[in-house]
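Narrative of activities, Objective 1.

The group set out to show that a structural description can be obtained from nothing but a protein's sequence at a throughput compatible with the screening campaign. Below is one input-output pair from the validation batch, recorded exactly as produced.
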Amino acid sequence: MERYQVSERAKLPTRFGNFFIQSFRELKPEKDCECPVEHLVVFTGDFCDTPVVRVHSECLTGDVFGSQKCDCGGELALAMQKIAQEQENGKSGMLIYLRQEGRGIGLFNKVNAYALQDTGYDTVEANEALGFKSDNRDYSIVGDIFKYYKIKKIRLLTNNPRKIEAMGKYVEVIRDSILVPSNSYNEKYLATKKAKLGHLL
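Output recorded for this entry:
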């Protein structure tokens, strides 16, 4: 069974700049998923030796609705700005947008985790109280994406050491930090990411 399918390449003009977009349809066995999972790759075009890359897991509440409970929406916007700057400087960049909401637990469970956080649980305790790991994400499709574009070395925009380790299975990784301002709603969330998940904040 093939592991994935790739869409055609299309132009994507955005408020950050003009990019290309492709979708990767991840074909998982039926026992793991009832339907294919479709991810997005936004990129500048041909790749230099070491493109700047953001591997961003979907966060509907932060990315679309501007939730202040996390730093996801701010990181997404900053990553797009940085990729656009690379393009302006004659370099290349890529955003891999993975459809694994709530660190891999899905939107329904993420909202339930939010409800637990409203009663005092932190982000790790809430996921675990629902029977999940603190981070349930799978990055195997990213390895296929890097291979498809013939990318062997990246500058990874992340504060997450687990993500650095995961990407290191597929490419050589140089880390670039991606820091956005905190607010009164996400201070505890960020402190938990630093204390319990080891984020470099």
